[in-house]
Amino acid sequence: MTLEDHLGDIIRKARTAAGVAPETVAQASGLSLDELASLEQSGIVIKRPNYQAFAPLIDLNAAKLEKIEAGWLPAPVDFSVFKELRVFTTAGDDMTVNSYLIWDAETREAALFDTGFDVSGVIQMIETNGLQLQHLFITHSHEDHIIAITPLRERFPTIRLHSNMKSSPADQRNQASDSIPLGKLRITNRETPGHCEDGVTYIVENFPEGAPGVAIVGDCIFAGSMGRPNQSSALLKQMVRKHIFTLPKTTLVCSGHGPLTTIGEQHEVNPFF
């Protein structure tokens, strides 16, 4: 298991978003410019920076950065608890991306969250387990999350699409009041722009046996990091604090890239918050 963003990715992402020059961070951290550049590129700490001095300059939490440097990883997910959840990680364009299949154990009604680069594994899972794919929920419109919509719709022509994309037909756009049933499960949505204008987080609740809820967050946050703030770093952080970090700490966080985590873990270790 590896994190989507290593220590250097986190520092570079925060520094760029804050508009702080490398020279300023290097001086505060006690590193040379070359040493800072090497850290940002590789994530490998050769000379330990002064986190307490430079982290506030780029709006990061120094103590949490130290946890990332120490090798923090999220606890493995117990899929005996989340029996009706599967993660599909597909590769393309020098990256990997996650999509998520969730279903109701009794009705076999299923929903897919994002497509990733390839839906062949999803289709095989659906056919092998006798599932009925009812919905496709899109977290945001970046290509790696939606590129396989066409083959999915060709195989399941009656599937209902849900997104915040302004170009979508009105009947495919999320409404704040949506509470969509999937058997006994319930799916709601919360707007989380900042990484992408149409970013949205989906909350799935009412799993059997009291299992925690699930938040499919797209690229808003990753385990130990957050998505690139293409719109606004302040907006993205505001949305995460308001709509994601207010969820119960046991909520399973399913990001568009990297490993799964929980709200509780991210309260403790995410340096951006």
Description:
By secondary structure, the protein is an alpha+beta fold. The chain folds into two domains: about 5-60, Orthogonal Bundle (434 Repressor (Amino-terminal Domain)), CATH 1.10.260.40; about 85-270, Metallo-beta-lactamase, Chain A (4-Layer Sandwich). It has ten helices and 13 strands. The protein has helices at about 5-20, 20-30, 35-40, 50-55, 60-70, 120-130, 145, 150-155, 235-245, 265-270; strands spanning about 85-90, 95-105, 110-115, 130-135, 160, 180, 185-190, 200-205, 215-220, 220, 225, 250-255, 260. The chain has a six-stranded mixed sheet with strand order 6-7-8-9-12-13. A five-stranded mixed sheet has the order 1-2-3-4-5, covered by helices on one side. Strand 2 and strand 3 form a beta hairpin. The two termini are about 25 Å apart. The model has no long low-confidence stretch (mean pLDDT about 95).
Describe what is shown at a glance.
The chain is α+β, with helices and mostly antiparallel strands.
Task: Supply database-style keywords.
six-stranded mixed sheet; 434 Repressor (Amino-terminal Domain); five-stranded mixed sheet; Metallo-beta-lactamase, Chain A; alpha+beta; 273 residues; 10 helices
- List low-confidence stretches: none
Strand order of the largest sheet: 6-7-8-9-12-13
Distance between the ends:
23 Å
* Tally of helical runs: 10
CATH class of the largest domain: Alpha Beta
pLDDT averaged over residues: 96
The helix/strand order is HHHHHEEEHEHHEEEEEEEHEEH
Describe the largest sheet: 6 strands, mixed
Shape: elongated
What percentage of amino acids are in beta strands? 15-25%
Count structural domains: 2
DSSP summary, beta strand count: 13
